[in-house]
Design goal:
The protein is α/β, with parallel strands linked by helices. The protein has 17 helices and 22 strands. It has helices at 3-35, 37-44, 48-85, 93-105, 118-133, 137-145, 164-174, 194-197, 214-225, 265-274, 309-319, 366-375, 416-423, 446-454, 471-476, 501-508, 541-549, and strands at residues 152-156, 179-185, 204-211, 235-240, 256-257, 277-281, 283-284, 298-302, 305-308, 327-331, 334-336, 358-362, 382-387, 393-400, 406-413, 430-434, 461-465, 468-469, 490-498, 515-524, 533-536, 552-555. The strands form four sheets. The chain has a 16-stranded mixed sheet that branches. The relative contact order is 0.05. InterPro entries: LRR_dom_sf. This is F-box domain-containing protein.
Length: 573
């Protein structure tokens, strides 16, 4: 605090002290008058009933008011004292605003760290906001002046028709900030929301639609398309929430296809052309009729069944019109060979994304991965590949003539060398592998894993979660033993079990590691015992060595689950 501010604070305290001293003198004088009141009344010959009436009607209410005001004085002074002694009070308001933003909009449950469903996340945002709002007047004033905290406009199942008073209050508090519309419905809204949105539609920067059926998504999208002018909108996220694991556990071979009303096709084309960010989950579109604009810089598609591999080709060809695309995420997208296709099809023409910076492919079948890697022209972009047991299978569709000609997906194991071959098509920079949560037996053998790494000479980052590091795999990763291995710069081993930390340390020493994230236990086998003994890593010599030899080392809890595994985090905006 500057000297001038300190002087102003001292002057304010001095004035308050002087006022308090005057108040004490006045109260003492008043008390003296009360103590002599009886004698004065007798001397004046006052009537008893008049004295009682005067005290009851005038003095008692005054004393009640005085008591109330004194309580307010004590409360206000104590609150001011506590605010000034709190370390938080010393933070500048702009720092507190940013802290509040991070706390309010965090998409994870504060107790479990699990990602919240969209509908629940909206509710949690406002619960957190109002909890912070009621802490103290300082926080309340900061929150009221931080418009972005009020910029989310929810339309939920419990409140499908927004209350105009709440909406106007949020608009007022949001100020000039861009608005974010969050629609989370189980069914189509009972009323047309367009009349509500029309006056403010040009303020919406991002829209998130989440529903449990495609009809609700389509009707909501149609409602938005009737607005015609979409110049202010730059981000659109659409998610079908209903989900029951891998999608080919039923007879459907394609995800729900969202088709806007024919009369709104031009508006839909205009909307897609305005987007800089487009995220879709568990739905698809008629890709052969879509064209993206040069404004699009980020696209994410996850958990979508596109149908045949040819449909993936159509999707990539449509996407190639987005010449400014920088970030592409294709996660848990499933395609298959049709039943009439030969085992080897003609390689599709490649597509080029000249501005692409990041390509992230997660948990796809081998045929899907092969199509993607053969189409994306190698460039300077960073390729992250998350391989699972699905990557070792080829999806083929056959018709089950014994079951009403229903489609039946056959998953055939591939020759692991075929995977090595396609991985050499594009430089891979980050590899992620997850051992799963069930059996301790890895889905990838040590020799197969070694071959996988040797097929990625440009690999810089390896992330492994829930993996057992026996002496075999630790030796396989040693570059002295296998000089064809890539030179790893970043190694993330989380929730791992380590049989011999010394061998793991020797392996790490053969790589030019700049960053290591480590979490897990050291496993000591009990000869003849009922179970193995798991020793914490904290005091191990391995951790001490890493602290002294790796510039960026982080030890995490053995139960730590890193973001990105299973499914990269879904963002509404």
């Amino acid at each position: 605090m500057s000297a001038s501010n300190y002087h102003l604070s001292s002057s304010a305290i001095k004035r308050l002290e002087e006022s308090s001293a005057s108040l004490v003198v006045a109260i003492k004088s008043h008390l003296s008058m009360c103590q002599t009141l009886a004698a004065d009344l007798l001397r004046d010959g006052a009537k008893p009933e008049e004295v009682a009436a005067s005290i009851d009607s005038t003095l008692e209410p005054a004393y009640t008011a005085m008591s109330h005001h004194l309580d307010e004085v004590r409360y206000t002074i104590k609150r001011t004292r506590n605010e000034f002694t709190s370390p938080v009070f010393r933070f500048p308001p702009e720092v507190m605003s940013k802290i509040f933003e991070n706390a309010v909009f965090d998409p994870r449950d504060s107790k479990t760290s699990n990602l919240l469903p969209i509908s629940q996340h909206i509710w949690v945002i406002y619960r957190r906001l109002h909890e912070l709002f009621g802490v103290c007047s300082t926080w309340r004033n900061i929150i009221l002046s931080t418009g972005v905290l009020w910029s989310i406009i929810p339309i939920e199942e419990d409140m499908p028709t927004p209350r105009s008073d709440l909406f106007e209050l949020r608009l007022k508090r949001a100020g000039e900030n861009k608005l974010y519309l969050a629609v989370a419905l189980d069914s189509s809204p009972a009323v047309d929301l367009s009349n509500f949105l029309i006056p403010h539609y040009n303020r919406f920067h991002a829209i998130s639609i989440s529903a449990n059926d495609e009809a609700t998504i389509t009707s909501t999208l149609n409602m938005l398309l009737r607005q015609k002018n979409h110049r202010s909108l730059s981000q659109l996220s659409i998610q079908l929430e209903s989900w029951s694991g891998r999608m080919y556990n039923d007879n459907e071979t394609t995800s729900a296809c969202v088709v806007p009303d024919k009369s709104l096709e031009t508006s839909f084309k205009d909307l897609i052309g305005e987007l800089t960010v487009f995220r879709i989950s568990r739905i698809t579109f008629h890709w052969d009729t879509m064209s993206f604009s040069t404004r699009l810089v980020e696209l994410r598609i996850d958990h979508a069944k596109l149908g045949t591999d040819d449909m993936l080709v159509q999707f990539m060809q449509a996407l190639s019109s987005a010449s400014e695309l920088r970030d592409l995420k294709i996660l848990c997208v499933e395609t298959h060979h049709p039943n009439h296709a030969a085992s080897d099809t003609v390689t599709p023409l490649p597509v080029t994304f000249p501005k692409l910076q990041s390509l992230y492919i997660q948990d796809v079948y081998f045929n899907t991965l092969k199509t993607l890697l053969s189409m994306v022209t190698p460039g300077s972009h960073h390729l992250t590949l998350d391989v699972t047991d699905a990557t070792l299978t080829h999806a083929d569709l056959q018709v089950d003539h014994n079951n009403g000609d229903l489609p039946n997906l056959l998953l055939n194991c591939i020759n692991i060398t075929d995977l090595y071959t396609i991985l050499r098509l594009n430089p891979v920079h980050t590899l992620m592998v997850w051992g799963g949560s069930g059996s301790d037996e890895p889905w990838l053998s040590g020799s197969a894993f070694l071959g996988l790494l040797e097929a990625m000479p440009t690999l810089e980052t390896l992330k492994m979660h829930h993996w057992h590091f026996d002496e075999g795999i630790q030796t396989d990763l040693n570059r002295r033993t296998h000089p064809q291995l890539p030179q790893l710069k970043n190694l993330h081993l989380t929730s791992v079990s380590i049989s011999n930390p010394n061998i793991l340390r020797d392996m790490m020493a053969t790589h030019p590691l700049r960053q290591v994230v480590l979490g897990g236990t050291i496993v000591h086998a009990h000869t003849g015992g009922p179970s193995d003994y798991h020793e914490p890593l904290q005091e191990s010599s391995l951790v001490q060595w890493l602290e002294g030899n790796v510039p960026d080392f982080c030890l995490v809890d053995s139960a730590y689950f890193p973001p990105g595994f299973i499914l990269d985090e879904w963002r509404q905006w």
